[in-house]
Design goal:
Blueprint: E1 2-6, H1 10-21, E2 25-30, H2 33-42, E3 46-49, H3 55-60, E4 68-71, H4 76-88, E5 94-98, H5 102-105, E6 122-124, H6 126-139, E7 145-149, E8 154-160, H7 172-178, E9 184-191, E10 194-196, E11 209-215, H8 219-225, E12 235-239, H9 243-254, E13 260-265, H10 268-277, E14 282-285, H11 291-296, E15 304-307, H12 312-324, E16 330-333, H13 343-346, E17 350-352, H14 354-363, E18 370-377, E19 382-388, E20 409-416, E21 419-421, E22 434-440, H15 444-451
Helix pairs in contact: 1-14, 6-9, 6-14
């Protein structure tokens, strides 16, 4: 597949990294020559310097025979015009655009993106993706990472194992016997900075960060199994009242649990806009690092604090201060993955990676076969892939034990007829089943091969 990626920032670079690693023909376009050079030097991609919306630049990038264009520059307008030029001048079939402005995303203007108007096949909103991720963190506060799968019937939980974890030093195969009715599978383990897919004889140790795929009804029991307890989030303080903070506050207002939230925003105009848009949420104008303002917001009585400004270091410092003031759960938005290892020493409980959520959303629309969802884990080290099995898939009709999965691949769950099942070696995979698969980055191409439909299917 020949793909043009417009924008060599964090999201564009990560998408290029994924696609080039899977032997696609990738060209990356950006007006910043330094970013283009970085992409060309570190990835197996071609680099073109220029404005992505200019027809001659797209022509130089090979738009005449491209299969897909992904417009992920920092400008909504450039992304929209790029898709229009790609469609009108070059006839590129698949066009994906990242749009930030809420006005462009309003449902009443959705006709704008039809082929007769502004031909964009898929619109990705980073703010909405991040807001959804923030809500998921609040739903599972004992997990440092979480994502929903199988239409809300399954959840991937990232759990840090502490000394009070009752199953440390226990081989994973014994967990199946000890908790025979628990619909949960450990699919990934990060130990001393390295992520791997565990074997049945592997043990878990204190300090391991594990990824568990479980049935949504078994979340509380799964967390208890690994030494965690769930606590209801009744009071939440949000630091950052921009698009993401506003979206989270609105979601909390409309949730059934009736969570009471307060928002702290430094910019007065942004704070006023948030106050006008929210009904029950109190908005405070000031610096989230101000201890007096945090106390005014009731941080010591809060069940959780979300630091979701547009500055990583501010978010981390606010989280540290909130913990010092007595808040039991501090969650920080962190764009730069190199800062994540500092979470533990600083006492930050969980983080949201906007790049990973946006990348996952884009990858969902790129994969082969009937892929329904992709979630990027860590710094693009692994993926959780959910897909529908086609009748022509190499997996169809086989028992799990007979499928030649690579060592870095584990099946987390299988959904048959709307019921989510814990996988076992004797379970037979049939057409129309939904499977969720954990795959290390190097093994993703083989998983795609197992999921891909044959050409005669069409």
């Amino acid at each position: 597949m020949k793909v043009i990626i417009c924008g060599a920032g964090q999201v564009g670079w990560q998408i290029a990294r994924h696609l080039s690693g899977e032997l696609n023909d990738v060209t990356i376009v950006d007006s910043n020559p330094d970013l283009v050079r970085r992409a060309a030097d570190t990835l197996d991609v071609q680099g073109i310097t220029g404005f992505a919306s200019h027809p001659d630049v797209l022509d130089n990038a090979g738009a005449a025979d491209a299969d897909m264009i992904i417009a992920a520059t920092h400008s909504d307008e450039v992304n929209m015009v790029t898709c229009q030029v790609a469609h009108s001048v070059f006839g590129i079939q698949r066009k994906i655009a990242r749009l930030r402005s809420q006005s462009y995303l309003d449902a009443i203007y959705s006709d704008l993106y039809k082929r007769d108007h502004m031909p964009i096949d898929v619109v990705i909103s980073p703010e909405r993706e991040v807001a959804a991720a923030a809500m998921q963190r609040l739903m599972a506060p004992a997990a440092f990472d979480t994502e929903t799968f199988m239409g809300g019937k399954a959840q991937l939980l990232g759990i840090l194992l502490a000394e009070d974890c009752p199953i440390v030093n226990t081989p994973l195969r014994q967990l199946t016997d000890l908790f025979s009715t628990l619909r949960a599978i450990v699919v990934g383990v990060r130990r001393e900075g390295s992520l791997f897919a565990p074997q049945s004889g592997d043990q878990l140790f204190v300090g391991d960060e594990i990824y568990v795929f479980c049935h949504v009804d078994d979340i509380s029991r799964t967390l208890e199994t690994f030494g965690k307890t769930q606590k209801k989030q009744d009071r939440v303080v949000i630091v950052g009242g921009g698009n993401v903070g506003l979206a989270v506050a609105k979601a909390l207002e409309s949730s059934k649990s009736r969570v009471r939230a307060k928002v702290i925003e430094r910019n007065r105009a942004v704070a006023e806009r948030a106050a006008e848009a929210l009904e029950r949420t109190i908005v405070l104008n000031g610096d989230g690092l101000d201890a007096a303002l945090l106390q005014e917001a009731g941080i010591a009585r809060a069940d959780a604090m979300l630091a979701i400004t547009d500055d990583d270091k501010t978010n981390m410092l606010v989280a540290v201060r909130a913990k010092a003031e007595g808040c039991p759960l501090a969650i920080a938005l962190i764009n730069d993955p190199t800062l994540v290892p500092l979470m533990g020493p600083l006492g930050i409980d969980a983080y949201i990676n906007p790049r990973a959520t946006t990348v996952s959303s884009i990858l969902r629309h790129i994969r082969h076969g009937r892929v329904r969802q992709v979630y990027s884990i860590g710094d693009a080290e692994a993926e959780m892939i959910e897909a529908e099995i086609m009748s022509t898939s190499p997996m169809a009709g086989q028992r799990l034990r007979d499928i030649g999965f690579p060592e870095g691949v584990l099946v987390g769950g299988v959904m048959k007829g709307g019921e989510m099942l814990r996988p076992s070696g004797s379970l037979r995979i049939e057409a129309k089943d939904i499977v969720s698969i954990f795959a290390m980055a190097d093994d993703v191409p083989e998983v795609e091969r197992l999921l891909q439909v044959s050409i005669d299917f069409f």
